[in-house]
User: Fold this.
Amino acid sequence: MFKNWLIDQDIYNYVLTVSLHEQEILCQLREETKKLKESAMLIPPEEGQLIALLIQLIGAKKTLEIGVFTGYSTLWTALALPQDGCLIACERNEQWTTIGKRYWEKAGVNHKIDLRLGEALQTLENLLENSHAETFDFIFIDADKENELEYYKKALQLLRPGGLIVIDNTLWSGLVINPTVQDPETTAIRMLNQKLYSDDRIQLSLLTFADGLTLVRKKL
Ligand code: CA
Assistant:
């Protein structure tokens, strides 16, 4: 059974019953990921479906993912992209991406995915140095939280005007409003949320969805 801390279980079950269409291959990857001890990092299926919808709504072709884990969100993205679409996927843990790769291949979307193993900040820096600034239509940020503000700053440089950044876990199980919680991850998320609120280069919406999902559009 899926759970969401923001909403009542019955209404959540209902929402999934009447709205979720998760392909079998996605379901299989999710099931395999659930066996890992880090499985809580997996995004819920309705979030994958929203990402896919957003990608198609803006007609995204060139996308970037910061934090792949086992490639579940990656697979939703690649399936939503057109045949000539591409996704540059940043991850430092090769064991996790090895799992994802098997499913990307099985789903016939591996050719759209350009996996960059290593530190994401370095990958983003390389992209900026190699003329990728302002070329991405869509960017999903869901990696280590301590570096999130830096990921956001570079992502905004890489995003085209009118493009969309989606940031996961911006409510962090509600810890953001608990002043006694001062660990580096929670503090970094609070800082990012404040930064986004005062950033006049963007328009934003913080959705009370999944674990808090912030949509950022770069103004034209
Ligand atoms: Ca996440």
Remarks:
- Residues 41, 43, 142, 168-169 surround calcium ion (CB under 6 Å).
- The longest strand covers residues 159-168.
- Helices lie at 9-19, 24-33, 45-57, 72-80, 94-106, 120-129, 148-158, 184-197.
- The mean pLDDT is 97.
